[in-house]
Write a structure and sequence with these properties.
The protein has 196 residues and is an alpha+beta fold. 32% of the residues lie in helices and 16% in strands. The radius of gyration is 18 Å and the shape is globular.
């Protein structure tokens, strides 16, 4: 999939991605200075405070729909809500719900450490950072700082009804297959109706 930057297109026209050294470096070479990596900057950003007065909410169904609409507006491709007390109590960390977001990933960010390979991570972090901040502004707790393994993220995505696991344990979704990246999971006490 070519990337357009103004009038330029990567990889260069007439060359494939297999023999283009610039494209290979863009996808596979990690930045020499981690400060050049947007995902690292977002990851180190401090979470804001929870607003001291809880906002009045609609029903849990409407609240879940609003959270999903916001994440989709912020360029997530798939969003689901998991009731952690029923589905994955070992991951709850004192939060009853998890919001799981996914973005399309042409290159697997776990094996492509370059700027281009990390683009889905950046998109996912942007979405989850804004959604979690909005939830805190509503007066509810929301954290994306809890470490969750890739396997647990993918199991949460299945619990949220986003897709299924393949025979080798990878998440696959109807629209994108395995070309999907599960962003940082938002743990929250915002009352919502769970999916799945």
């Amino acid at each position: 999939m070519p990337l357009r930057i103004g009038p330029l297109r990567l990889p260069w026209p007439g060359t494939g991605t297999d023999d283009d050294p610039y494209w290979d470096a863009f996808i596979n070479r990690p930045p020499a200075d981690i400060r050049n990596s947007m995902p690292e900057i977002i990851r180190k950003a401090a979470e804001g405070n929870v607003f001291p007065v809880k906002s009045e909410l609609h029903t849990p169904e409407v609240t879940a729909a609003h959270v999903k609409e916001l994440a989709l507006y912020l360029r997530a491709q798939l969003v689901g809500v998991v009731d952690l007390s029923r589905q994955r109590p070992e991951l709850a960390h004192g939060y009853p719900f998890a919001v799981v977001t996914a973005v399309k990933a042409e290159n697997d960010p776990y094996t492509s450490p370059g700027m281009g390979g990390q683009a889905p991570v950046q998109t996912g972090q942007f979405s989850t950072f804004i959604v979690a901040s909005w939830i805190r502004e509503l007066g509810f707790r929301a954290s994306i700082k809890i470490e969750v393994s890739r396997e647990d993220r993918e199991r949460l995505a299945v619990a949220a009804g986003l897709g299924t696991l393949t025979g080798d344990g990878r998440l696959t979704v109807p629209k994108y297959g395995t070309k999907i990246y599960i962003a940082d999971v938002i743990f929250t006490d915002l009352p919502m109706k769970a999916d799945g």
